[in-house]
Amino acid sequence: MIGGGPAGATVSRILAENDIDVLLFEKKKVIGLPVRCGELLPHPSEMRCLFPKVKDAEALIGPPKNTLANVTEYTELIDPIGNKIKSRFKSNIVFRDKYDQALVKRAMDAGVVVKCGCPVISVSGNGSVRVNDMGTIKQVKARVIVGADGPRSLLTEGFRENYEFSVCYVSIMENVNVDENVVQMYFGKEYAPGAYAWIIPKGKHVANVGLGIRKHFSDSIKIKKYFQKFVEEHPLASKLLDGGRIISSSSKLVPLDGPFSNVVTKQGICIGDAGGFVMPHVGAGIPSALLTGRIGAEAILNYLRGKGKLSDFEKKWRKEIGPRMKNSLRIRKFTDLLLRNGYIDSFFPKRGQQYFEHLIRCDFPFPLKLFSFYLNLRSKARNLS
């Protein structure tokens, strides 16, 4: 197992619970640090809508109690000119380091051997990996290798051509004055070109604050500058964050084009961010990491027991979460068309409230599909002219 995040911890635990020997390598010395995400999990009740074909989605998503920072009831979208759209969407906000550590502990309790501070250097075609184990290079051979090592996974290097990533900047801030029952998403090319900025309340005047940018929409400005501008100059957000103090900051890549072209390799399978399993319209990765971890474990178990092939993983994820991943990508592309055609400022005030509840739950209503088709034709016509 390469990587000890939610995906790697989940697949490892399930395999170990079924008497499979699992060795997990994690390059970080401390699981879960630094924090590189918004720390938001959809509440189990929301998972029924997000992934209706997954029977155990609610059970997988529930965080251990000691990892829960806050529970929010609403999500609010703020468009570039300050219009607000609020929708009921229940979320669990976690301490991401404690959350990851709890999942890894469950895996260890099941029998998984975990080695932290041991980065995998390379993967060979014969089912072995080279590992830097405390300064000593070792070679380890396994029947199956699972890539759960993020969007630059060693197993998916050949499947990332012409694939788009967003760069995200994440900070934990204290002494902020935010509504602790509302997650906020801010749109606007001045602060988060091609993506959005967020304020996610963790309770006790602490918030996870961050934003993403995309190369095709942004100027050659470093992401930290966009973040500083959002915190200090946004007409609404700056008032909430005024006087806030940054506790920690980090950045990461987020896959935006859906699952990679082939998440099954000769050596094994890729799950979570390593396979591109991130919801493209919001950049959320934890739910799909947990789900692909469970789906991957089932495929591996059947393979090791002679009841299936590793390639069955491809069929299983497409059946259970494939339709929602497709919808998420369609919504992201629709939003791109709104941005490119100058409709973003007018769409949300007129139609945002009507459709926001659908879009945030990964539903893409038919009227929006028609509007997306029209915008796509318009873009093509403009390019030809």
Structural features, described:
Among the domains are: 6-33 and 57-67 and 94-163 and 258-325, 3-Layer(bba) Sandwich (FAD/NAD(P)-binding domain); 329-384. The relative contact order is 0.16. The protein starts with 5 loop residues before the first helix and ends with a helix. By secondary structure, the protein is α+β, with helices and mostly antiparallel strands. An eight-stranded mixed β-sheet has the order 2-4-3-11-12-13-10-14. A three-stranded antiparallel β-sheet has the order 6-7-8, with no helix packed on it. Strand 7 and strand 8 form a beta hairpin. The chain has eleven helices and 15 strands.
Set out the fold topology:
Layout: H1 6-17, E1 23-26, E2 40-42, H2 44-50, H3 57-61, E3 68-78, E4 84-94, H4 96-109, E5 113-116, E6 120-123, E7 128-133, E8 136-141, E9 145-147, E10 165-174, E11 182-186, E12 197-203, E13 206-213, H5 223-233, H6 237-241, E14 245-255, E15 268-270, H7 286-304, H8 312-320, H9 322-340, H10 344-360, H11 366-384
Parallel strand pairs: 1-5, 3-11, 9-15
Antiparallel strand pairs: 2-4, 3-4, 6-7, 7-8, 10-13, 10-14, 11-12, 12-13
Helix pairs in contact: 1-4, 1-7, 7-8, 9-11
Order of helices and strands: HEEHHEEHEEEEEEEEEHHEEHHHHH
Classified in CATH, the superfamily of one domain is FAD/NAD(P)-binding domain
Oligomer: single chain
**Main pleated-sheet profile:** 8 strands, mixed
Shape: globular
User: Tally of extended strands?
Assistant: 15
Count of alpha/pi helices:
11
Task: Please tell me the overall pLDDT.
Answer: 93
The second-level CATH architecture of one domain is 3-Layer(bba) Sandwich
* CATH class category of one domain: Alpha Beta
